[in-house]
Amino acid sequence: MTRHSLAMFSAWALLINPVAIPGQSSSQNAPGSGLRQSAPRISDQTYRVTVDLVNIFCSVWDKKTNSFVTNLTPESFALYEDSKPQEIKNFIRETNLPLTLAFLIDTSESVAPKLKFEQEAAIAFFQSVLREKDRALLVEFNSGVDLVQDFTSDYTKLAKQIRLLKAAGGTALYDAIYNICDEKLIRETGRKAIIILSDGEDQSSRTTFEEAYEMALRAEAGIYGIGISQGGFFGVSGSSEGKGDRILKQLAEETGGRTFFPFKIEDLDDSFRQINQELRSQYNIGYISNSLRRDGGYRKIEIKLQEKNLKLTYRKGYFAPPQ
Hints:
With about 325 residues, this protein is of the alpha/beta class. The chain is about 25% helix and about 25% strand. It has helices at about 10-15, 115-130, 155-165, 175-185, 210-220, 245-255, 265-280; strands spanning about 55-60, 65-70, 75-80, 85, 90-95, 100-105, 135-140, 145-150, 190-200, 220-225, 260, 285-290, 300-305, 310-315, 315-320. The strands form three sheets. The protein has a six-stranded mixed β-sheet, sandwiched between helices. Strands 1, 2, 5, 12 and 14 form a five-stranded antiparallel β-sheet that branches. Mean pLDDT is about 80; it is low at about 1-30 and about 40-50.
């Protein structure tokens, strides 16, 4: 699969971000060997759908109360693509839509002391979040990427596979994101999210950060990162932000997700609660781009609100359909 160049960060982002996405990247063959126990790669098939309607899932919460706001109207939002105003065509405030979740758990040697915690945390997440109409899959990544449980609504199947996980090898975080989006999530519709439980320190991927990020955008999947590199609760003495934490943040911010860095078990429970609540409290905003270009290039999205005490999360762009 070829990739189009990325030109999506402003000059300030290139200066301060830990991983700068270059203005141009050369085309190359699809990286990695794909998921084990997986379906055929989308990128190896003829899979082109021209989609005129652009759908953006958007979360809004009050900065003062730190609570989600779910009673806004279309008139509350101003929508822009590449700085040009766009007309909102669809607007849905649906809090009970089914979720499609991909849970990526780091089982590399670097997190071996924390694996038992990761297993308990993942089980607790599925037990508290998964509903009958939701679907979730489980991926472990170390030096490779394995689909250990395909889509299911059965929490017990996921829990059984989680308990069998063992720590070994390096960390192929970018491969995991790329492959799960390419082979699974891009097929799905509706609300999609990737939950990553990791220290964020990639060591083994053939995929680059840019390629993983681009594929997450193409799959329209928001990334929610839970960092396990901070705090005594995780067997780590310090609490300063490291490179892995910054990578998780960058992936989340640009795809419309969030990051959490729990310091104690109560913080972790709260992180799962917030992810669950956010995914079920989003606005679905749809528009038809007024751009005539069909070049497959990146387009920047910006959403503004009139009220100043409200904060937004949404994916910051998408790739236009090709000619």
